[in-house]
Amino acid sequence: MKCPFCSNPESKVVDSRPSDEGASIRRRRECLVCHRRFTTYETMESLPMVVIKKDGSRQTFDKSKLLNSMLRACEKRTVPFDTLNHIADEIELTLQNEMDREIPSARIGELVMEKLKDVDEVSYVRFASVYRQFKDISTFMEELNKLLKER
């Protein structure tokens, strides 16, 4: 880290501690030349993710949209909000770890269905019916039959 006083590129870390509720690390440094101390903050780099919609349009990934779609599917069900929030966090982390900055909306939908299936089957079917755009009752029944066979 370059010293703000003498511009020397060498310094040593004297003290480190979490800051902003663990979102960053505060470091006290000492310049190896002028021996003056200064503070730096280290944060995790967050690269934006872009969702490629079915129609080819692109928009920035928004976890709140993901959470809202799951809330709609779980309406009048006994699924706790914290569970849905945790699922949204897991999906966001999974997508970030894949290091692909452009994500097809189909990938996100599949991840949601995978998680909802384990949490609440009715919510899973509701989400799948909108996501897969069930056209009629037979398509709906096919999905229900798949679910029953997996049991």
TrEMBL record:
Protein name in the entry: Transcriptional repressor NrdR
Renumbered zinc finger spans (unnamed): 3-34
Cofactor: Zn(2+)
Alphabetically ordered keywords of this record: ATP-binding, DNA-binding, Metal-binding, Nucleotide-binding, Repressor, Transcription, Transcription regulation, Zinc, Zinc-finger
Keyword flag S-adenosyl-L-methionine: no
Pfam families, A to Z: ATP-cone, Zn_ribbon_NrdR
Cited PROSITE patterns: ATP_CONE (PS51161)
Membership in a protein family: Belongs to the NrdR family.
Cofactor remark from the record: Binds 1 zinc ion.
Stretches the record annotates as Disordered: 1-21
Compositional bias of kind Basic and acidic residues: 12-21
Coiled coil regions in record: none
Classification via InterPro entries: ATP-cone_dom (IPR005144), NrdR-like_N (IPR055173), RNR_NrdR-like (IPR003796)
Positions of the ATP-cone domain: 49-139
Keyword Amino-acid biosynthesis in record: no
UniProt lineage: Bacteria, Bacillati, Bacillota, Clostridia, Eubacteriales
Function, in words: Negatively regulates transcription of bacterial ribonucleotide reductase nrd genes and operons by binding to NrdR-boxes.
